[in-house]
Amino acid sequence: MSTNVTKTTKSRKSGATKARSTKSKAAAPRSKARAKPKNETPEAETKTLLGDDHFAGLAPGKAPTINMGGQPAFFSCWDIHAYYGESYIVQGVTFDVREGEIIALLGRNGAGKTSTLRAISRVDDPALRHGEIWLDHKPLHQMKAFEASRVGIGLVPEDRRIIQGLTVEENLKLAQIAPPVGWSLERIYDLFPRLGERRTQEGTTLSGGEQQMLAIGRTLARDVKLLLLDEPYEGLAPVIVQEIERTLEQIKTLGMTTIIVEQNAIAALHLADRAIILDMGQVVFDGVAQEVLDNADLRQQYLAI
What's the whole-model pTM score? Predict the structure, then answer.
């Protein structure tokens, strides 16, 4: 890993030096046309792309797919690069999602799937150093996690993070303590009848499958525009997996835009409209989910199934 980081750093510096040289020559005529106001600070300047100078010349990510039927993207991430410390994990990921679409984000262990979801949801780790992330015309890359949540990002983490000491209903109500509020408790209980039956039970004493239901329900209690599911079938018995699958099918019929990361790739592909496959932090496939199901060589190469 350290050798790869060293090579990447050298190429980045080289690319950045060339880009700055080219940029300064191209920008010279514009400096005459507009004088900078005396009170203008660097923070006041318009800058959309994170780390533009730092990553000049480095854009290994795959270009977004063309939207079928000309429908504009509801969500887009463009050339995002993210790090855990000095470990370079997300290496130029680019894709877009149409409203109501379900995306299966797949890859082997360590491919960067969860890291990509975390970068999209704007949590502190991994640190996003370059790129743009847009949801319904809102620049997520300029936001903190709580701000991204306010504009519609809903992350269901792999470890569920049910709050100890609170009942099922208290976990749900806590999610609605500040606007924007999403589904009512009654609607959540309609989707997950088991939660209604156990509404007064402490959340951490539920079974694994019931905790997963609670984690999803808690996210839906917010006004979610993009649902991010990280390993929703992880550690669950097959019969519970089937129950969660039926729930996700119901959510699909409601037209909720969703990105699902799941090691059970076949199950995710049957649910999804499109599949995006990551390898070594980069997009290596972006296409119709059925194409992956039909292509055994592709599955073996990148998913080992």
Answer: 0.78
